[in-house]
Write a structure and sequence with these properties.
The complex is a heterotetramer, with two copies of chain A (about 300 residues) and two copies of chain B (about 240 residues). Chain A has helices spanning about 10-15, 35-45, 60-65, 85-95, 105-120, 135, 185-195, 205-210, 245-255, 260-270, 275-285, 285-290, and strands at about 20-25, 50-55, 70-75, 75-80, 80-85, 100-105, 125, 140-145, 155, 165-170, 180, 195-205, 215-220, 225-230. By secondary structure, chain A is α/β, with parallel strands linked by helices. Chain A has one domain: Glutaconate Coenzyme A-transferase (3-Layer(aba) Sandwich), CATH 3.40.1080. In chain A, the strands form three sheets. In chain A, strands 1, 2, 3, 6, 10, 11, 12, 13 and 14 form a nine-stranded mixed sheet that branches. In chain A, strands 7-9-8 form a three-stranded antiparallel sheet. Chain A has a two-stranded antiparallel sheet with strand order 4-5. Chain A is globular and about 55 Å long. By secondary structure, chain B is α/β, with parallel strands linked by helices. Chain B has one domain (about 1-235): Glutaconate Coenzyme A-transferase (3-Layer(aba) Sandwich). Chain B is built from eight helices and 15 strands. In chain B, the strands form three sheets. Chain B has a ten-stranded mixed sheet, with helices on both faces. In chain B, strands 7-6-11 form a three-stranded mixed sheet, with no helix packed on it. Chain B starts with a helix and ends in a 7-residue tail after the last helix. The chains are: A alpha/beta (about 300), B alpha/beta (about 240). At the A-B interface, strand 3, strand 5, helix 4, helix 5 and helix 7 of A face helix 3, helix 4, strand 9 and helix 5 of B.
């Protein structure tokens, strides 16, 4: 099988171009691929349509860095601090540039990615009836449920098939076969909906490790374009069994990004002047070590024996 | 406020727990009067017992460990649309007299005065939970006659508007730092149901952007019991969310 | 939490009534709840709508025993032998009684249960376009994809919310929290779509065992009505890591059920004169032991530690 | 027949593997000319290497152990509708000149002469795979002018009928125990493409229920190579499926 292990900069430059639609943060609060967020900013890839239900401060950073033309999501802000200052500036003042928002709820975005994942032509939904979301996002259509006697209204959600999804996983082999555990958000729907997938693997393991537990597989390697070995690549977001959340990092970001200049200072310090993930780890140093989960709380033994 | 929210959870309820304060409210309910409640988190978690450590987000490792289920968003939020969620909690920036909540745009959508983070799962919870409980700070700029944008539907224009839009359920209570509001009457307008100790009706009305009417039988909110306070301290040891 | 452990006869009699729609066999060839099939026949519960994509010989047995008024499925037969003789007799000759077939493909049934699981009003489908299935099952409707420019046809599949799903799992606790691994077919969709769920647990374990691996959970116990402890309850179908398939049993059944009398003899010997699963195990004796998987091929260690 | 089927799999293909013979054909292809093929099984399995023991059903333990993915039916069959499956194999009881296959009803639906098991995943595979490969025993009662019921659509009434029904793909080959048929010309009617060693054109036509025409360049099917036979014996050690 093809070896798909690549450095992050090559994985991004070979699989993401200006104007692409990209899933960055499929699991809501955990497993946000911040290392990829930073690399996209460093490469200055612009005009992106950033897709994520909730991805904590990642989308806000990309907006502030001028990479974003469109946001397809349910929530953009900072879970520790609330509002996303760059998001506000872009929408309220057009700074650093205008951003078009495709409003979703978590569930409507879930249905759009589900439809994209399985080639469903669209999905009818009850869950955003009554909400202005069904009006402010012109992608939705209203219809009646033909199976109902009472002319029940439904909202039709068209499928999303992003150009790329960048997905952190706890472990993968070099061929892109990967295990993910803990809450899954929309990670599997994103993996199947996207045209291409880049995995950020906290650990690279032998193929036998992944094959020992096929039910834990997020997605098999033949659907994966590239695997990057990036321990802590989701920092400051948490990863089940591996990394705690760096709450202070989010709070600091929220505070300093209140002004445009404060954000630009933060961007220089944490992204532009940090050449790669190794340098980022080194800069965090002890702080990253303190977030590392070193204990073990093993899952019950499961066997796939045949005899 | 948290204790009042916890009291809205009945024993055995399947509860959609939002971010921040509701996580603590769920824990308090579970440790006091609702030991059989089940907590759903939109990131893909179902829990019985509250997490063993304070949570900054619902996806933090202590909420994963020992969960009853770690699955996808669809498996959890699908239970809302399937009609299996008894109560859901959300917050908001603006709420109006019919319990509609705005967490999206203040001002014009095309050029908003304030761009708020958006729905997250709030629109889904508001639309599909059997009972919606909102938790908000009570300020006049937040309690408005009509929200600029309905992110999370309450009773819309009141009366039968919500059911005409195809929705059941609806707001059951709005818990604020001053009082509790509940819908009342055929128009389903929010009324003042109880005032927290240390607050009064005039003050509450002064901080409300519509002509807030009292419910018949308006009383003072019962102060937190010793058991409730103990549960609160057990759940939020460090006082992060108080 | 409530103790939901029940003997199979009570679990069935308390949760299944005449005329109910019941999922019996959600995983295609493995994990078919034959112990429940036999118990339903012993209790003589009739008029059932049996729902299963493919459930090997289980549906054929229920039809021959006169329990079935309707079949909602994609394939009814015997994977070892091909045709289902009782299914043929019922449809060709009305023996032992008429059966109405709601034709599906695997994927259309999957979409119906998916819709039922998540409260979706219906699901549009491309996958049975061109097939007479879309015509011979009047539950489907034809429509046009409103998002397509070319008036693309789609088939609309209404949701299925069965009264009951009986689902074999490798292990469960007494409260109904359960682990399932290996290919999942439609087991999770069935678990979430059904109004009630009965688990047939190959092993009953402490609650801590299930809680040690929340990502392996099929369904949490609050959605489960009853748990039955039935080692080998899926025999003669296989269960990953636990039981091999009893191929000879299926071949024997196929051969003897070729005639109505042959089937009735088989039914007496293997179902009616066997009072319960314990007696069935005893009757199989060494044969069951030979099918038991005793080796272990453990999955890689996975941890949910927090520090 | 199995070897001829295996040859329809190109290296790197994502292949939807049906029951019985196709499982062996996939294994033979993977061990010979298609080491990078991927096999999909509708019960929810994806495999690279063929299973380590003979399979009676796709859900048997040897097909689970070491699988690339053990997941749900939807995650696997969804790849069909997503347009990611290159080739799919199915069998059938009846096939007609346009490659439509019946595995449901012989005779009248309301009172069939023979009730066959039904579609399983065959209708989905026939509708959505880029190339459909059918494997059937070649008998006159099975190779008919027009099937009684289209379980799995081929080219329907021929010509543009299939694309008008909203479908791409379509039959690429029908592998029988006597020969290989392929669609040809604007009507997309099945033509005789090659005859297996030991069989001849007249015999094949005699066992076909329509006026079967030969393809230009009709030849004898290449006999199984030594490598193909070795692979066949390695996959089906006990000769269960030969």
């Amino acid at each position: 099988m093809k070896d798909k292990l690549l450095p992050l900069d090559r994985a991004i430059s070979e699989n993401l171009g200006p104007g692409d639609a990209v899933v960055l943060g499929a699991c809501l609060e955990p497993d946000i691929p911040f290392a990829a967020t930073y690399e996209i900013i460093r490469q200055g890839i612009g005009g992106l349509n950033v897709i994520a239900p909730i991805s904590d401060a990642s989308t806000d950073m990309l907006i502030g860095a001028g990479c974003v033309a469109e946001v397809t999501g349910a929530w953009v802000g900072n879970v520790s601090g609330g509002l996303g200052h760059n998001y506000r500036r872009a929408l309220e003042d057009g700074e650093p540039g205008p951003v078009i928002v495709h409003d979703h709820s978590n569930f409507s975005l879930a249905m759009a990615l589900l439809a994209g994942a399985h080639g469903m032509p669209y999905v009818p939904l009850r869950s955003i009836l009554g909400s202005d979301i069904a009006r402010s996002n012109p992608a939705f259509r209203r219809a009646e449920n033909p199976f109902s006697e009472a002319r029940e209204p439904v909202v039709l959600v068209p499928p999303l098939q992003p150009d790329l999804a960048v997905l952190p996983v706890q472990r993968a082999d070099r061929h892109g076969n990967a295990h993910h555990w803990g809450s899954a958000g929309l990670i599997q729907e994103s993996a199947l909906a996207a045209e291409k997938v880049i995995l950020l693997a906290d650990e690279i393991v032998d193929a036998e490790v992944i094959a020992s537990d096929p039910s834990r597989v997020l997605i098999p390697g033949y659907l994966v374009a590239a695997v990057c070995h990036l321990p802590g690549g989701a920092h400051p977001s948490p990863m089940t069994g591996r990394w705690r959340r760096d709450n202070q990092f989010f709070e600091d970001y929220h505070r300093v990004s209140r002004t445009r200049d404060g954000f630009l200072d933060w961007l220089r310090e944490w992204v532009l002047e940090v050449p790669d993930h190794a340098a980022y780890q080194k800069k965090l140093s002890q702080r990253l070590d303190d977030l590392r989960i070193t204990g073990t709380a093993p899952a019950a033994i499961t066997s796939y024996a045949v005899a | 406020m948290i204790v009042a929210a916890a009291r809205e959870i009945a024993d055995g309820d399947v509860v959609f727990v939002g971010m921040r304060l509701p996580i603590v409210a769920y824990g308090v309910a579970r440790l006091t009067h609702a030991p059989n409640a089940v907590g759903l988190f939109e990131c893909g978690i179902v829990r019985y017992a509250p997490a063993g450590a304070v949570l900054y987000t619902m996806g933090d490792p202590p909420n994963q460990m020992g969960a009853a289920w770690a699955t996808g968003l669809i498996q959890v939020m699908g239970q809302l649309q399937r009609g299996r969620v008894d109560a859901g909690f959300i917050g908001g920036a603006e709420i109006d007299r019919f319990g509609n909540i705005n967490t999206s745009y203040i001002g014009d959508i095309a050029k908003p005065r304030v761009k708020l983070p958006g729905s997250g799962g709030a629109a889904d919870i508001a639309a599909m939970a059997k009972r919606l409980i909102a938790i908000m700070n009570h300020q006049k700029r937040r309690f408005v006659e009509k929200v600029d944008y309905v992110t999370s539907p309450g009773f819309l224009d009141g009366g039968e508007a919500r059911s005409k839009a195809g929705l059941g359920g609806g707001p059951a209570a709005v818990i604020t730092d001053r009082c509790i509001l509940r819908p009342h009457g055929p128009r389903k307008e929010l009324h003042l149901a109880s005032v927290h100790p240390g607050h009064n009706v005039d003050e509450v009305r002064g901080h409300t952007g519509w002509d807030l009417k009292p419910l018949p039988g308006l009383a003072e909110t019962a102060p937190p019991s010793r058991a409730e306070l103990a549960a609160l301290h057990a759940i939020d040891k460090e006082g992060v969310w108080r």
